[in-house]
UniProtKB/TrEMBL annotation:
Protein name (record): Fatty acid desaturase
A GO CC annotation given for this chain: membrane
Region (Disordered): 311-341
Pfam family, one: FA_desaturase
Molecular function via GO: oxidoreductase activity, acting on paired donors, with oxidation of a pair of donors resulting in the reduction of molecular oxygen to two molecules of water
Record bears the keyword Transmembrane: yes
TM annotation in the entry: 29-49, 186-205
Keyword field: Membrane, Transmembrane, Transmembrane helix
Fatty acid desaturase domain boundaries: 48-287
Matches recorded under InterPro entries: FA_desaturase_dom, Fatty_acid_desaturase
GO biological processes: lipid biosynthetic process
């Protein structure tokens, strides 16, 4: 199966392309600062007024901003945080990727394959969308694993073991490999812990950084993965193999930060900074392509599509086909939550 190819000039004229392609460093910095302001503000709120309500609110907001940092790292992987590549990589690595135990360059190598082969058999992210639709019971099981930290724990455990390398390697080689894979991430997280401890709120690191990272961030990463490519109308049509999901204020606050919901527009023009995607959406919505675009009104509508299989067809533990299972090495339904975008 081969996907159709469409050029940028099929959608926008030259002046529009020049405008939406513009990468403005201060805008990228402002989005990163916004994410960290919400994170630190949420921690301050709990420290000032500790109670279950503010704690749950903080976990939801911080988890969504951790996804936001992943989204901004993704922009950095596309060179969109700054026109200066050194500045772009510095912003993406040290302020977005490393705090959430990610790495921009490794992600970029993997992610560009997804753009080149979207929803085709050799798309590395196909495992995230291929199993859908599933049953409501199946999704509820996944939600429970995500919100209780089981998914996050398994992912971090696999990341840690991968960083250690094979047991038969010499200790020095394993140590060097570990530092290469996770060294900067641990340094940045150590600095984050030290800063919180110096402010008298050391407890915020495990409770308001690691906990959201392992729980709510996992929940909304799965929802984002589902929304982007699951149950799309036509895997070969670039207007219909990727989905844009409209998002209200609460969805943008807790589920879909920093314009990640404009995923169709991102796939059509992947070098456009995220803050220009709403403009691309408006242009396309007024074009002859509007009727063909896969757009859903909200995330609840997407989840209804993705859980449309009747519960009597539920097969707990059922896996994808042998070839896909071997390639993915993951459970059906998108536990490879770090992929996507």
């Amino acid at each position: 199966m081969t996907a159709l190819r469409m050029r940028a000039r099929d959608f926008l004229n030259e002046d529009q392309l020049i405008a939406v392609r513009q990468r403005v460093t201060w805008k990228g910095v402002a989005l990163i600062a916004h994410a960290w302001a919400l994170i630190l503000g949420s921690i301050a709120l709990v420290a000032w007024w500790p109670n279950p309500l503010t704690f749950l609110l903080a976990v939801g907001i911080i988890g969504s901003r951790q996804l936001g940092l992943a989204i901004l790292m993704h922009d950095g992987a596309h060179g969109c945080l700054s026109a200066d590549e050194k500045v772009n990589l510095t912003l993406s690595q040290w302020f977005c990727a490393y705090p959430i135990f990610a790495e921009t360059r490794a992600y970029r190598r993997y992610h560009l394959q997804h753009h080149a082969r979207t929803q085709q058999e050799d798309d590395p992210d196909l495992v995230l969308s291929a199993p859908f639709p599933i049953t409501g019971m199946s999704y509820r099981r996944k939600f429970v694993r995500d919100i209780t930290g089981q998914t996050g724990y398994q992912q971090r455990k696999a990341q840690f073991l991968n960083a250690l390398g094979p047991k038969e390697w010499p200790h020095a080689q394993r140590a060097a490999h570990f530092w290469e894979k996770l060294g900067p991430q641990l340094v940045v997280n150590g600095l984050l812990f030290a800063g919180l401890a110096a402010a008298g709120v050391w407890w915020a690191y495990p409770l308001l950084w690691l906990l959201p990272l392992l729980t709510w961030q996992m929940v909304i990463t799965r929802i984002r993965n589902i929304a982007e490519h699951a149950v799309v109308p036509d895997s070969s049509d670039p207007l219909r193999n990727t989905r844009t999901t409209r998002a209200n204020f609460l969805e943008r606050l807790f589920i879909a930060p920093y314009y990640v919901n404009y995923h169709l527009e991102h796939h059509l023009l992947f070098y456009v900074p995220c803050y220009n995607l709403p403009r691309v959406h408006r242009i396309l919505s007024e074009s002859r392509y509007a009727v063909s675009m896969e757009v859903q009104p909200n995330y609840a509508a997407v989840l209804r599509l993705a859980t449309a299989k009747p519960d009597h067809e539920d097969r707990p533990g059922k896996l994808v086909s042998g070839a896909r299972r071997a390639r993915a090495g993951k459970e059906v339904g998108g536990d490879q939550a770090a992929g996507g975008f």
